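task queued by scheduler; priority normal; single chain, no ligands, no partner chains; default sampling; output format set to structure tokens
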Amino acid sequence: MSKHMIGALDLGTAHTTALIAEIYEDHQAVITGMGMTKTQGVVRGAVNDLDLAAASVIAAVQEAERSSGSTFPAAFLNISGGHIRSEEGYASESISGDPPDIRPSDIDRLIQRMKEMPVAPEEDMVHLIPNEFALDGIGGVHHPVGMAARKVEVKACRILVQHAPLQNLLRSMDRAQVDVAGLMVHPVASAEAVLTDEEKQEGVLLLDFGEGTTDLAFYAHGSVQHVSVVPIGGFYFTRDIALGLQIGWDQAEELKKDNGTLLRSITETPPPIMIPVLGGKELRKVSAATVSDILEARMQELCSRIKRNLTHVDMIDLFPRGMVVSGGGASMKGLADYLSREFRLPVRHGLPLNPDNLPERLQKDAGAAAVGLIRFGARQPHSIEKDVAGSAGRAKNVNILSAIRRSLQDFFR
């Protein structure tokens, strides 16, 4: 059985992950190499130092190459940060003939018309995802080819990112000597790894808790309908503890992981926690309730921001399958129960599906986006990898975004 190689790169706020995978004819992916390193040069998902970010990528790539025994191939790249947003787009096409049968070429023209719709100068469209068609004004159609209509309309999700952060991400890849085969926004990449087909079909909200941001992705009818980002992540919970208790950053992070909880017991009173005085060796007592109060205050703010995002797009009641939480911050104690109570929805903790096929480190929260990139890339035509790597090269040679956009924008069709 023939095979080819693809890579995945997740340049996150906390960690950088590089994967190498063999892709077979049946689209099965076997991960042969993995590298993970602490990220430098990235704040809240956006590159703020090209050299430091490139150094993080190089370290992860070299580790992946050593474990795989092969050169790092063209990679599918994760885009993260608070600059990601989505909007609905509409286009229509008249159908000729008697009877007026809808052909694949009609849908291609419709999608092309939507691709050509203007985008603000400061933004780039990364994904164009057709969600619903209307035939002669009657909506709710998802597979229009072969049906009859005089007019076909499409409603699509256009996922946009700001131009400058994206260019800085691509420039860091250039400095790291990494070829980019495709782009994918972080919440969609995570969803590829942790959501089931049934959840995507019936309606579910993914909340990916990263170090710098919390990403939202709403799925229904099998595809993403809306994405947005709240600029609050695990970093802010740790900082609140450090400032509130006047302790160092490492101690605050340890306290959050070991003693922090969002749901305090009514019947039990945990023993006090001994923490070091800032700048000294003496210890002082802090109640577990105080730590919980700090975490709950920040979580209340985060939930309010999430609700505002969902209310703005009129989606607050559209999640029959509830919520799935993933990302590095999803392991916070009591998180699922807290969200279930706050949003009155079922909530499950989403880890990468089919863990038996994954290295142990990728079976955890922090590996979701990288796993999603591989699974997404495994479904793409092999010619895309060769065409983009060959014609686009690296960002310094041509406008790589244009080459990727031409090949990748309608992969979700």
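post-processing summary
- Residues 383-398, 403-413 have pLDDT under 50 and may be disordered.
- The longest helix spans residues 288-312.
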